[in-house]
Amino acid sequence: MSxxxxxxxxxxxxxxxxxGIGAGLAYGLAERGANIxxxxxxEEGTEKVAGDIADRFGVRTIAITVDVTxxxxxxxxxxxxxxxxxxxDVMINNAGIIEHATFLDMTEQSWHRLMDINAMGAMIGIxxxxxxxxxxxxxxxxxxxxxxxxxxxxxxxxxYCASKWAVxxxxxxxxxxxxxxxxxxxxxxxxxxxxxxxxxxxxxxxxKGLTKxxxxxxxxxSVGIPLGRYSLPSDLVGTAAFLASSDxxxxxxxxxLCDGGMVML
Length: 265
Ligand SMILES: NC(=O)c1ccc[n+]([C@@H]2O[C@H](COP(=O)([O-])OP(=O)(O)OC[C@H]3O[C@@H](n4cnc5c(N)ncnc54)[C@H](O)[C@@H]3O)[C@@H](O)[C@H]2O)c1
Known about the structure:
Keywords: Oxidoreductase. The chain is an alpha/beta fold. The protein has eight helices and seven strands, in the order βαβαβαβαβαβαααβ. It has two domains: 208 residues, 3-Layer(aba) Sandwich (Rossmann fold), CATH 3.40.50; 39 residues, no CATH class. The radius of gyration is 18 Å and the shape is globular. The structure holds nicotinamide-adenine-dinucleotide. The site of nicotinamide-adenine-dinucleotide has 30 residues, from helix 1 and helix 6.
């Protein structure tokens, strides 16, 4: 395994779900040598993932409980990471939620919940990371988790799609804003990834009578993926490692889909 990220200090939000994308990236980037601040609203999850990574890869880790919608907590997260590791090199704004609702059933309440966590959380994460990276004066990498839903919108998840288009829009604006500081801001957009989020959606479909059997929704969502299967968090590590490393120094404001070919534009 390459040690292209050796000694790079990385924050990953939403990394406390053991089967989730954030945790998958935490393991994968640690395997490539990065020190990881494992951050999530789920305290127990952050401690488990951080402890496991330290044991397996011998890198430095820190577990931080944070709600990405809370500015003060996000500032504290950056501060604690810098005091533990010395500086912040890479920020991955990954925390997110999804909800199913037909277009006419979307409510203001669920709109605000999704927009707050997925979009405003990314906004605060970009801002707080950029402030720290500008103060350090050595550039940096900001990676925001978008989705295929940031390029195509689906009627059963319109508010989720809006929140992910917002992530892509914020990333482009931030890329232009911080280019002079050599801070690259890019998005990566998964397609169908088997995580707790997808399992929850699968259960929601059964409980609403939209599907009959557990696993059916994930199967239906995966039908027709050109590369022939849904993905796992480990499928996303290579793209994240590329965006976190100097290999992507001449790339900013991009939204790379890692979706098995689901969306081709
Ligand atoms: N699973 C997929 O198919 C898929 C596809 C495209 C994009 N994504 C995106 O990838 C990201 C991770 O999704 P996942 O599938 O790993 O989901 P997940 O539910 O497994 O993990 C999400 C994590 O975010 C955390 N979180 C939720 N609200 C938070 C908050 N306010 N503050 C801090 N942490 C919070 C949760 O505790 C959880 O650990 C999300 O942004 C999601 O929209 C997922």
